[in-house]
Specification:
The complex is a heterodimer. Chain A is mainly β. Chain A has five domains: 2-125, Sandwich (Immunoglobulin-like); 129-195 and 207-248, Immunoglobulin-like; 250-344, Sandwich (Immunoglobulin-like), CATH 2.60.40.1120; 346-373 and 383-467, Carboxypeptidase-like, regulatory domain (Immunoglobulin-like, Sandwich); 473-583. In chain A, the strands form nine sheets. A seven-stranded mixed sheet of chain A has the order 21-20-23-24-25-19-22, with no helix packed on it. In chain A, strands 35, 36, 37, 38, 39, 40 and 41 form a seven-stranded mixed sheet that branches. In chain A, strands 9, 10, 12, 15 and 16 form a five-stranded antiparallel sheet that branches. In chain A, strand 2 and strand 3 form a beta hairpin. Chain A is flat. In chain B, the strands form eleven sheets. In chain B, strands 2, 3, 5, 6 and 7 form a five-stranded antiparallel sheet that branches. Chain B has one helix and 45 strands. Chain B has five domains: 19-112, Carboxypeptidase-like, regulatory domain (Immunoglobulin-like), CATH 2.60.40; 116-237, Immunoglobulin-like (Sandwich); 240-340, Immunoglobulin-like (Sandwich), CATH 2.60.40; 342-439, Sandwich (Immunoglobulin-like); 444-535, Carboxypeptidase-like, regulatory domain (Immunoglobulin-like). In chain B, strand 34 (408-414) and strand 35 form a beta hairpin. By secondary structure, chain B is an all-beta fold. The model of chain B is unreliable at 6-12, 183-193 and 543-547 (pLDDT under 50). Classes of the chains: A mainly beta, B mainly beta. Chains A and B meet through strand 11 and strand 13 of A and strand 2, strand 3, strand 4 and strand 12 of B.
Chain lengths: 591, 547
């Protein structure tokens, strides 16, 4: 469960600062107070039935700081003892009760009194949604074994992602449960070659090529123009969907594979046909084919459309790869046999320039040792010390291309990245020697916009990364801080406006409203700054974050100066409101 | 009159293609037309010549542009059993259709039996829906000539505990559910937590609510029907504390640590398979660890005899262990000693006229006791020798392919033991070669049904050979009551002419006991036997007797 993973992470993040705070800020240490306890039941908010084997998280505030966890038993009961007196947020988690957008459900607030047992608590869990329905053919007959893929709708910069799978039975029925309240697209795909007429003839062992299949269907329907449709599933709701599948003609696309001179392979390469428009977002190939021993290939069941044929040689030797990308158009008749030529992948050489001088002058010189697993290369003899790595990621999610990286020599800053195909790539840098940031990227003669470069087929230029100086120190101050009685730590998130290649490092600092916040160094750039209460938002997921960043204006962090940033506080109530508006369909899905 | 069909593009005398076959496909239960079924036509004697046609909204199909010849027709559609034209039941022999020049045959009817479904609810011992439980349906069959339950399909119970297993062939069924409420069985150190772990855990439970397979309630699933309310209340039992230690020979331990970068691996996880003997329904994999530390698992195991086996591969060498154990409850400690698997070698010889090269043949092994190991077949070399590498101990059935057309498997000897008519059991000490003789000249016999109407002819071996299932042969009957058998193993046979016979009915050892005096006895040697006349067995058209 994703939310549980976030909890585990936040426990690790949380331990340090809060502990210190207990002793630093409260001045005189509080005298030891007798412990109390909590007990109660976890119930289904609609049916009031107990929820067995739920996982409960207890967040203590103020003097009762700490996170504890217990489980509910077979009758939904739970109890937690030895709790310091104070206020707690009690949250219940259960795999069958996902919260909206996959977030944990809020829970209740409870007070622990010294030396007393707080009883009879009821922690409600809002039931999830259910999607059920039928898949029928064009005659109204049920279609069995169709695959149903439930995908979370596109949201801001997050693309469509699959979140659940189902299959239709012999009555065409399917049921997807539990479904977290969110907005979705549902796809039905019946992978069946429909019967066709083939006159009596000699056939190969593969038989006749399929000529017709069921067209993949979506709910809501794909619009002809732009726009991103999605449907909402709310807590406890059952959405019923009926698919009426229509047949579509399909063709077989055949061809032969060749290699540019000097290029060869041992393992047969794999080819994919991707939808030219959506291939980058939905990432499901329309058809896949293995190249055979005689270098021919065959894609079957290809509906009419525009495609991108994409292939890669993968022999496990990173420097000897080849790629191919070409557009393929399939009409009502199959295209003539294709000739697909693999081109060798390119290698880019480059240099990282660090204005702060040689590696020896840095705070910590981390000695990175590569630990190899079984079957991997042995320890490298005379390995040069590495200062960082440069990663190139394909832009627009092209085909099967993965990101490529090269190590940066600590002495002279040089690196090489191999296995690249022509196209657009985003450049990023990861330092192994303390925090650093990239001030500018230059490829050949031209500076790179947004750290993206265009790699051409011919000789590659030199890639130059200039690192920035000391990253600016950013101080934070609370904007619209919650009332003084607010409990708990608030986590400050710095979300880069341009979604980075190396992951979205967002958490920067934490603190209590009204108290000063520790400063951080941040690489220059544009960010959304916001603060979320730890018990609810400290582990808010990426999807919810896409909604929350729309509540604040981006702030630019400039190089070379010290800045103070006003951080907007979003209370759990604010988060719930934003999520509710989204579920009600009042929020646009695109960026 | 056989049509000569030349390959495309070769000039020559092509026969006229102006005949056709038309017909309809109907649902065998309801009589309703079946649309979008696939009708496939094949030319007799040629595997590589076929044609297809779809059925329309009214179930009608048309196979056009056919040259004259003898054809077989079969129909398929998802959710229905495959039916050959002229067969009485799915899997039964079909009828050959002869089409002349310029002939438009019509009126063929094929009735497709719709497959069936089993549905119900699964609840835990506490009465809550057992969401995620895996439910399996087993059908009564006689895979090795003995009654057994074979896996026919499975499905997971949804969030409400409902399940539905569909596309099942008709027959007798039992249903069982397995539910892991918590994480898979936890490893426990000896002593200490032992007492705490004695709380009951879910056990494989058969419908309606029993853990004993002999007490499972079986039911008949008719074609095109659904059986609902096949509910299961998962039972719990005090687990057996099972400890299986897998002992590794020192050279294998070396290989494991070599692949781990030189450091000895402290705990290796090895696959162990546990199967209750005499029952094919309860096999399960157990994650076990090798090592000197004694570790226990809580397993819900009924008292009885079990088979424990393990197969491990390291650097191209296979190791295996196999042990029969008796479980009565409480605590069970077993040590499985892995030993290198033997290589089973031998020779294949072709005898008889027109014996071609042996080098296109393969010899393979299939487990006769549901072991989950798949072995690669061995290619027979030009001199007839072959080697099956890494054969784990156990009961194995031998598969020799391809048997030349009209030929038969004449003898299989493991050293001096006849493994053609008897089971073959391999142990780590087996050293004998497995020598196989295939004859190209099997027995051949043709006949006619003189009295009555029969649709299925069974040639059943008598005497010692009666226990060898692969010697039985079934034939359909053509328009004139004629039938033929090829490639039979020479011996004494009884030829039965049934008005109707369910496919594979003879696998049930009690089946033929219903017909003690019926059938015509023939003695077959290699080559063509004199034609025989038979009489249809009166009253053999009703449902399978005996069970």
């Amino acid at each position: 469960m994703r939310s549980l993973a976030f909890i585990a992470m936040s426990i690790a993040l949380w331990a340090g600062p809060q502990q210190n705070r207990f002793f630093q800020d409260s001045g005189a240490q509080l005298g030891p107070q007798p412990m109390g306890s909590l007990s109660g039941r976890v119930v289904d908010a609609v049916t009031s039935e107990p929820v067995r084997e739920a996982h409960l998280m207890l967040y203590g505030f103020g003097a009762a700081a700490g996170i504890r966890s217990v489980s509910s038993d077979a009758s939904g009961q739970f109890s937690a003892g030895e709790l310091p007196a104070g206020q707690y947020q009690v949250q219940a988690l259960h795999a069958n009760y996902p919260g909206p957008l996959g977030l944990p459900q809020g829970g209740i607030t409870a007070e622990v009194l010294p030396g007393k047992e707080t009883r009879g608590l009821t922690v409600p869990l809002s039931p999830p949604g259910v999607i059920s329905g039928r898949v029928l053919d064009d005659g109204g007959e049920p279609l069995a074994n169709c695959s149903l893929i439930l995908m979370q709708s596109q949201l801001g910069r997050m693309p469509v992602q699959s979140s659940a799978f189902g299959q239709s039975n012999d009555k065409g029925e399917f049921r997807l449960a539990p479904v977290a309240p969110d907005r979705y697209v549902l796809q039905a795909k019946c992978q069946e070659a429909l019967p066709a007429e083939n006159l009596l003839s000699v056939v190969s062992p593969e038989g006749f090529d399929p000529r017709e299949t069921w067209q993949t269907a979506y709910y809501p329907d794909r619009p002809e123009g732009g726009g991103t449709p999605a449907f909402s599933v709310s807590a406890g709701a059952e959405v019923k969907v009926e698919f009426h599948m229509k047949p579509v003609s399909v063709s077989t696309v055949t061809g032969v594979v060749t290699a540019a001179p000097g290029l060869s392979w041992t393992n047969p390469p794999m080819l994919q046909l991707l939808d030219a428009e959506t291939g980058g977002t939905v990432q499901q190939p329309a058809s896949v084919a293995m190249v055979r021993a005689n270098n021919t290939f065959r894609f079957t069941m290809v509906p009419p459309g525009n495609y991108r044929l994409s292939g890669m040689i993968q022999d496990g030797v990173p420097d000897n790869t080849g790629t191919v990308e070409m557009p393929v158009s399939v009409g009502s008749a199959p295209p003539p046999p294709l000739t697909v030529q693999f081109q060798p992948s390119l290698t880019i050489a480059g240099k990282v320039e660090d204005p702060r001088g040689e590696s020896g002058a840095r705070e910590s010189n981390v000695d990175v040792r590569i630990i190899t697993g079984p079957g991997g290369p042995g320890p490298r003899p005379n390995a040069a010390p590495i200062k960082g790595s440069v990663t190139l990621m394909p832009v627009d999610g092209r085909g099967m291309l993965a990101s490529r990286a090269g190590e940066v020599n600590a002495q002279d800053g040089t690196f090489r990245v191999s296995g690249l195909a022509p196209g657009r790539w985003r450049v990023s840098y990861q330092s192994y020697q303390g925090p650093s940031w990239v001030e500018s990227v230059q490829y050949g003669d031209a500076p790179a916009q947004d750290q993206q470069i265009e790699v051409g087929q011919g000789a590659a230029g030199v890639l130059r990364l200039v690192l920035g100086g000391k990253p600016p120190t950013v101080k934070f101050e609370w904007k619209d801080p919650p009332p003084a009685s607010a409990r708990g730590t608030w986590m400050i998130q710095a979300v880069p406006v341009v979604r980075g290649a190396g992951g979205n490092q967002t958490f920067v600092s934490s603190g209590l409203p009204g108290q000063p916040i520790a400063a951080s160094s941040l690489a220059p750039g544009r960010y959304y700054f916001l603060a979320l209460e730890q018990s609810y938002g400290g582990m808010v997921n990426e999807r919810a974050l896409e909604l929350l960043i729309r509540q604040v204006e981006p702030t630019e962090i400039l190089a070379g100066s010290e800045q103070t940033v006003a951080v907007k506080c979003l209370s759990p109530g604010d988060v719930q409101r934003v999520v509710a508006e989204f579920l009600a369909g009042e929020t646009r899905l695109e960026q | 009159m056989t049509a000569v069909l030349l390959a495309d593009g070769i000039a020559g005398a092509q026969p006229e293609r102006n005949s056709s076959i038309a017909g309809r496909v109907l649902n065998a239960t309801t009589g309703a037309p079946v649309r979008r079924a696939l009708v496939t036509i094949g030319l007799e004697g040629r595997d590589d010549v076929m044609g297809t046609a779809p059925t329309g909204g009214d179930g009608r199909f048309l196979l056009r542009a056919l040259p004259p010849g003898r054809y077989s027709i079969s129909v398929t559609k998802t959710g229905y059993a495959v039916m050959d034209y002229g067969a009485r039941r799915p899997g039964g022999p079909g009828q050959v259709i002869t089409v002349g020049e310029n002939e438009n045959k019509s009126g063929l009817i094929i009735r497709l039996p719709q497959l069936s479904a089993i549905a119900g609810s699964v609840v835990t011992a506490g009465g809550a829906p057992a969401s995620g439980a895996y439910v399996q349906a087993f059908r009564r069959a006689f895979p090795r000539g003995k009654p057994d339950w074979i896996f026919a399909g499975g499905a997971n119970a949804d969030d409400q505990g409902h399940y539905r297993i569909f596309h099942l062939m008709p027959g007798q069924y039992i249903v069982a559910a397995r539910h892991h409420q918590n994480a898979p069985p936890r490893m426990m150190p000896p002593g200490g937590a032992a007492e705490a772990e004695q709380r009951p855990i879910p056990v494989l439970t058969y419908h309606p609510a029993t853990m004993i397979d002999a007490e499972a309630r079986s039911f008949e699933l008719k074609p095109g029907s659904e059986m609902t309310d096949v509910d299961i209340a998962v039972q719990e039992m005090t687990p057996v504390r099972l400890s299986v230690q897998v002992q590794i020979p020192p050279d294998l331990e070396q290989k494991f640590s070599a692949s781990n970068g030189g450091t000895p691996s402290p705990r290796m996880y090895l696959p162990v398979w546990l199967q209750r003997m005499g029952s094919s329904t309860g096999g399960q994999p157990l994650p076990m660890s090798a090592g000197s530390e004694q570790r226990y698992q809580a397993q819900a195991l009924l008292p009885g005899r079990y088979l424990l086996s393990s197969v491990v591969e390291a650097e191209g060498q296979r190791y295996a262990a196999r042990q029969e154990i008796s479980i009565t409850g409480g605590q069970v400690e077993v040590t499985l000693a892995l030993t290198p698997c033997i290589n089973l070698a031998g020779h294949v010889r072709l005898s008889g006229p027109n014996a071609g090269p042996v080098s296109s043949m393969t010899v393979g092994l299939v487990s006769g006791e549901n072991a989950p190991t798949a072995l690669e077949s061995a290619k027979v070399q030009a001199d007839g020798s072959y080697v099956l590498k890494g054969v784990p101990p156990g009961l194995w059935d031998i598969v020799v392919e391809p048997i030349p057309k009209g030929g038969y498997l004449k003898s299989m000897m493991l050293g001096r033991m006849d493994v053609l008519t008897k089971d073959m059991f391999i142990t780590p000490e087996t050293r004998d070669p497995l020598d196989i003789v295939v004859s190209t000249r099997g027995a051949e016999i043709r006949g006619r049904v003189e009295e009555g109407v029969a649709t299925t002819i069974l040639a059943a071996p008598q005497g010692e050979l009666a226990s060898v299932l692969s010697f039985y042969s079934v034939s359909g009957v053509d328009e004139d009551g004629g039938f033929e058998f090829h490639a039979l193993t020479p011996g004494v046979y009884r030829i039965y002419a049934f008005e109707e016979m369910a496919p594979q009915a003879w696998l049930d050892p009690d089946f033929l006991k219903n017909y003690p005096e019926d059938g015509t006895v023939v003695e077959l040697g290699e080559g063509r036997a004199p034609d025989v006349k038979v009489r249809a067995i009166p009253g053999s058209g009703s449902a399978r007797k005996g069970r």
